[in-house]
Amino acid sequence: MEKNLAGLTPAPLWQYFEEICGVPRPSKREEKIVAYLRDFFTRHGVEHHVDAVGNIVARKPATRGREDATPLILQAHLDMVCEQDRDGRHDFDRDPIVPVIDGEWVKAAGGTTLGADDGIGVAACMAVLTSSTIQHGPLECLFTVDEESGMTGAFALQPDFLQGKMLLNLDSEDEGELFIGCAGGINTTARLPYNSTPVPPGRFAVQVEVSKLLGGHSGDDINKGRANAIKILARFLWMLNETKNVRVATFEGGDKRNAIPREARAVIVIAGPCREQVITEFQAYASAVKATWIMDPDICLTIDEVEVPARALDEASTRTLLDVLHACPHGVFATSFRVPGLVETSTNLASVKFDEEESITIATSQRSDIDSEKMNIADTVASVFRLAGAHVAYADSYPGWSPDTSSPLSRVMIASHERLFGKTPVVRSIHAGLECGLFLEKYPDMDMVSFGPTLRDVHSPRERVHVGSVERWWKHLVDVLENV
Q1: Is-catalytic flag, 79?
Q2: What would the CATH number be for the domain defined by 186-398?
């Protein structure tokens, strides 16, 4: 593979990042990256072990004179969110991600996610493990699987797998900030049954589409005023159905639970005489949407006449689907009274998919740094679904990570940052989910901090990592290793 990042520093980190970009690693399908790392560690003489689910721990002895230092763990997850533009043809199970330099940033060519979340963390661990110059105490590097779609690796972690007493999670996205707490999360899924019937004569059909939204991370970007394509589409169809005899033939939108939906489209059939009126109402709605969602400057709404489908949802099923999508909450539910500016609780209406068994799957995810409020918003969403007659299931609940303001590790990191850069880093909690809460369940005395370089628009094809922030973050990491 062509080395597009060869001129960047630190050179080993970027070299390893570019290498792992060539290894497919979708969530729940990390076999190739696990095999790659096992071969890498074998070639470099690094002790390593793999558990039953694919988590890897690699160990490196302390450098001379640091044998009595507190054992430290570096941790990153192996999987990546696989998103691409609608017209993309990237096969995430086979095709390599191609990183390219774009000014001060590195992004992926071809309109896909980059995988810097958390490939940069993985590459940093590899660079530390193979370095002959960094001074450090007893060191472990933990690589977990399936963080993005269920935290399977963290859930399965056994209490005897790790030996370290402090842990640096390398999965944050704002350089110069230290995270000492995070939200917990849960997924709430509805299966909504429907009835379909033949389309009566005298109808015309249109496809309505919402596209080119920014999307983004359903935790870290949920408070940034970004539009949800499903909600925008559902609102127009709901409004149209109030005055027209609309029947939905298909409705598809979104993909990953932890990504704000960027695209949605539906085919609907309508009585023929109101064709011009529908177009006029759509144009007025599109103008209102563009004026409202100013944080999505490229938002695109289109309507095109298409061939009339043979079948569509009946009137009752159409009404139920549009009611439930219009009523389902999305976005920030509550802000924190304890930490000013922090989102406390949120929910993401993530995807809508028609199944072959005459049911519609609606996927959502909820987050909160208060466990009872996490369940409260999940139950609120479930109530909307149940009112519509849907079967509801909860899954993949994981705990939050309560901040420890007296953390010795955070004090070391603050002092290091001040010494290196002449300023105190921001210390805060994050609304995104990290694996640290699950680590605490297995290792209740573990002292943990999360930090990373600056990433933007993760979980979307606009994902990118800031080059200068990686160099500063690396210097900070090396200094912490040398001073713990």
Answers
A1: yes
A2: 3.30.70.360
